[in-house]
C-alpha cells in the first residue's frame, strides 16, 4: 500500500467482504471502526468506489430503499464485492510488506486480521513493534536534547508521547506472545496422533506386520 488511497481501498474491500452496503452505511462503518477515516467525506469515498467498480472489484446496483436524509440520493446504490474483488482482497491480505506496519495501513490491516493468515499477522505485528521501538528511541533522543530550554508543559507533552509509545509496545508484546502461542498449539495439534486411532502394528523381524 503506497499511499492513503490504497489504504482506503483496502478498508472498503474489507468492509464489503462482510456483505453488501450502501454508501452511507459503508462510510459510517469506516468512520466508526477506523479512527484514521474519522474525517472521511463522501467526496473522497465515492471516487474510490467508482474506481473499484471500473476495475471489476465491486459492483454497484440500485435499490428501492429510501436514502438516509443526510446521505442524499447516493445511498440508493448498494456496493458488493465481485469474485475478482474477493481474490484481490485475499491477495492483499497475504502480503506483509513494510508499509503494512505504518500508522494508517497498520490500523486497517489489524482490523482485517480475522481474515489474515497467522504467519502474516505475526510478521506484521513484529514489523510494527520494530517501527514503534525505532520511533520511541528517536523521540527519546530528541526529547533529551535541549531539555533545559523547554517549559514544563512541553516537557509534559513529551513525557505523554513516550508513555503512549511504551503502552503500544506493551500491547504489541501481548499480541505477539498470543500469536506465537497459537501457532505452537496449532503445530502441536498437527503432530499429536489421534488417541482414538489405534497405533500401527510394529513390524516383525522379517519385515511383515
SSE inventory with pairings:
Layout: H1 4-16, E1 21-22, H2 23-33, H3 42-54, E2 58-62, E3 77-81, H4 83-93, H5 103-111, H6 118-144, H7 152-191
Helix pairs in contact: 1-3, 1-5, 6-7
Could you please describe the fold and organization of this structure?
Helices cover 59% and strands 6% of the residues. It contains 7 helices and 3 strands. It has helices at residues 4-16, 23-33, 42-54, 83-93, 103-111, 118-144, 152-191; strands at 21-22, 58-62, 77-81. Strands 1-3-2 form a 3-stranded antiparallel β-sheet. Helix 1 packs across helix 3 (42-54) and helix 6 (118-144) packs antiparallel against helix 7. The radius of gyration is 24 Å and the shape is flat. 21% of the residues are buried.
Amino acid at each position: 500500500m503506497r499511499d492513503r488511497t490504497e489504504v482506503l481501498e483496502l478498508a472498503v474491500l474489507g468492509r464489503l467482504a462482510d456483505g453488501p452496503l450502501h454508501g452511507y452505511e459503508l462510510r459510517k462503518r469506516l468512520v466508526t471502526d477506523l479512527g484514521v477515516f474519522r474525517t472521511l467525506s463522501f467526496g473522497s469515498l465515492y471516487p474510490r468506489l467508482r474506481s473499484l467498480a471500473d476495475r471489476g472489484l465491486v459492483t454497484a446496483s440500485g435499490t428501492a430503499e429510501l436514502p438516509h436524509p443526510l446521505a442524499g440520493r447516493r445511498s440508493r446504490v448498494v456496493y458488493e464485492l465481485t469474485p475478482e474483488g474477493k481474490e484481490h482482497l485475499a491477495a492483499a491480505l497475504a502480503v506483509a510488506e513494510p508499509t503494512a506496519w505504518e500508522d494508517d495501513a497498520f490500523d486497517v490491516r489489524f482490523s482485517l486480521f480475522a481474515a489474515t493468515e497467522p504467519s502474516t499477522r505475526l510478521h506484521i505485528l513484529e514489523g510494527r513493534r520494530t517501527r514503534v521501538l525505532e520511533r520511541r528511541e528517536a523521540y527519546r533522543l530528541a526529547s533529551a536534547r535541549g531539555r533545559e530550554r523547554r517549559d514544563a508543559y512541553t516537557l509534559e507533552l513529551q513525557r505523554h508521547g513516550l508513555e503512549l509509545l511504551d503502552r503500544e509496545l506493551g500491547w504489541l508484546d501481548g499480541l505477539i506472545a498470543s500469536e506465537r502461542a497459537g501457532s505452537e498449539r496449532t503445530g502441536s495439534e498437527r503432530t499429536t496422533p489421534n488417541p482414538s486411532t489405534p497405533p500401527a502394528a510394529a513390524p516383525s523381524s522379517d519385515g511383515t506386520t
